[in-house]
UniProtKB/TrEMBL annotation:
Name the UniProt record assigns to this protein: histidine kinase
Record flagged with keyword Cytoplasm: no
This protein's UniProt keywords: ATP-binding, Kinase, Membrane, Nucleotide-binding, Phosphoprotein, Transferase, Transmembrane, Transmembrane helix, Two-component regulatory system
Region (Disordered): 91-130
SUPFAM superfamilies linked to this entry: ATPase domain of HSP90 chaperone/DNA topoisomerase II/histidine kinase (SSF55874), HAMP domain-like (SSF158472), Homodimeric domain of signal transducing histidine kinase (SSF47384)
Lineage, opening ranks: Bacteria, Pseudomonadati, Pseudomonadota, Gammaproteobacteria, Oceanospirillales
EC number: 2.7.13.3
Major localization class: membrane
GO molecular function, one term: ATP binding
Alphabetized InterPro entries for the sequence: HAMP_dom, HATPase_C_sf, HATPase_dom, His_kinase_dom, HisK_dim/P_dom, HisK_dim/P_sf, TCS_sensor_his_kinase
Amino acid sequence: MRVPIFTKLFISLFMTSILLVIGMTFSVSYSFKSGFQEYLNQQEKEQVEQLASLLSGYYSANVGWQELQEQPEIWGDLFVKLGVPFPKNGAAPERHIKPNIDLGGPDSGLERGPNRGPDRGPDLPPRDAAMSEEFGPISHRLFLEDDNHHWIAGVYFSDSKESSVEWFREPIKQGKQIVGWLVLKQKNQLSGPLVGQFYAQQQHNLIWIIGLAGLASLLVALGLVRHFLSPLKRLQQGANALSEGDYSFTFESSSNDEFGELANRFQYLAGSLKRQKDSREQWLVDISHELRTPIAVLRSELEAIQDGIRKPEMTRMDSMHHQVMGLRRLVDDLYLLSKTDAGVYQLDVRRLDIVALLQSVANRFEHRMAQKGLRLERLISEPIFIKGDEKTLEQLCVNLLENSLRYTDAPGTIKLSVLEQNDDLVLLFEDSAPSVDDAHLGKLFVRLYRVDQSRSRSHGGSGLGLSICHNIVMMHGGSIVAKRSELGGLVIEVRLKREMSNG
C-alpha cells in the first residue's frame, strides 16, 4: 500500500507534538510535587536557623535551659518574633511535654518518651492535637533538646512511624560549643487530601492541555507539511513536463535550503536537456548536409552517364570513387565517435613507445607535406613509454597531423614535440598560419564545428576529427587543448600520463 509522503510527515509531526506535550505535562507535575516540597522545607530550615540564633541567648552555662523551662511563654514569643503562627486556644498542649520519638543516632537509646504515670496530669489535650493540620507552620512541628538530647520545649508527637516524614536537626551554639538542638518534623513529599485534589486538578488540566495542544499540533503540522511539500509538488510537475519533452518549464524556488538547491539542479537539468536536444537536432542537420553533398555529386554523375550525356570514362570513375571514399570516411568517423561518446569502445591497453608511434605516423605524412610545400620539424627525444591503446592513439596522431596538413598554408611549417613534465607526457602539434580567433579556440573540439574563412568546408574533412581526438584523449585519462602557436597558426597540446619506468 502506497503511503504518500504528506501523510508520513503529517503523522510524524503530529505524534511528536502530542508526545512532547504529554511528556512535558507529567514532567511538570512530578517536578512540582518534588520541587515544591523541597522549596518549602528549605524555607523552614532557614526559619529554624534564625530561631536557633535567638535561642542561644536563653542558655546559661550555670543553669542551662532553666529559664525557658520555667517560662514556657518565651517559646511562643520567639515564634511571634519570627512572624510564625503559634498554636493557641487549645490547639496545642497547655504545657510542653517531652515527645516519644526515635531520631536515631548514637543517643537513640535514650528515653525520650513522656511520663505515663499519674503525674502526667489530667489537663493534657489529646495527642497530635497540634498536628490536626496536615501541613501546618513550623511551630506545630518543632521542639527543643539540650546537648544530651533531652527534651526541653516544643510540641508533642505520637509514636507513629511515617515513611514520608523527615527529621531536620539544627545545632544551637554559644561560640563553638553546641548547647542544644532544634528538631523539626518535615515531609519529604506532598501527600494527603491536598495532593489528591491537586492531582485531580492536574488530570483535568491535562485533558484540556492535550486537547488544545493536539488541535494546535494538527493545524501547525498541516501548515508545515503543506509548506515543505509545495516545492516537491512543483518539482513533480517539472519532472512530468521534462518527461513529455517540455524543456521550457521553470523551477521557481525562493528558499535557500535543500529544496531550493534541488530546484536549481532541476533547472540546470532542464537547461542541459534542452541544449542536448538542440545539439542533437543540429547534429542531424549537419550530418544530413554532409551526406547530401557527396550523394548529390554521385547522383548527378550517374544520371549523366545513364542519360548518355557523359561517357563512363576513367576520370568520371575516379571522381565518383573519391566521393564514395569521402562518404566512407564520414561514416567511419561517425561510427567511431558514437562508440567513444557512449563509452562502449573497448581499449586494448598495452605498454607502448609513444615516440616510436608518433615517428611512424609522421613518416607517412612527410611526403604529402613536402608536396604541399610544408616543412616537418621533429623535436623528439629518446623512447618514452605509456600505457594506452595503440590503435586509437595512432588515430589521434593521424587526425591531428591531417588537420595541420589540411589547414596550413604553403609555404609553412608543422612541428612535432614531445615533452616530459613530472608524471605527464605532453605532445605538441604546431603549425604556421593561418590561425583562428580566440573565440573559436574552445569550440574546435565540438563535433561538426567549423571556423569560417580560412578553415571552411572548402578544405574538406567531415568536421569530426578533433571531436574524435577529444574522446580518445578522455578515454586515456588525459587532456587536450587548442592554443595560438608562436609559428602563427595553432598548437594542439595533448597531455597524457606516462609510465614512470621507461627502461
